[in-house]
Amino acid sequence: MIKLETKIYTAGFLDGEGSVTIYLNTSRRMEYVPDVSIYNTNKDELEKLRNEWGFGNLKPVRRKKENPKWKHSYCWRMSYLLAYKIAEELEPFVRLKKPQINLLLEYRDWIQKQKKPFNQEIRQKQEEYRYKFQLLNERGRHYNG
Question: Global pTM?
């Protein structure tokens, strides 16, 4: 059981330093992957959160360009079922990422009702969800869909 203060703290961290989306994974099976990630330069803090929650991957962020003045950055990432799990736990506490969390949970409910293998109509709907996330996560703009 995760402590209430840990949920609230994690939600604030996600609001300020996180991302909630689905992305198209072309390296595996051309599948859409739900993803909740939190980025920070404080690896110890991200490790503490991962240990308190008991799941997720913590990895260094690779940058296209490096600058010796920049600190190393790290990402605590939850994908697939773990993304849904943390989204559900944090939903009551997030503020800025509330639309993304709600869209992710809506996507989960929709995708669970679909029959495999997915046909073109389902793939099209997944692409529409991905586009909604793209709009929500765009800097300086807000999606109200």
Answer: 0.88
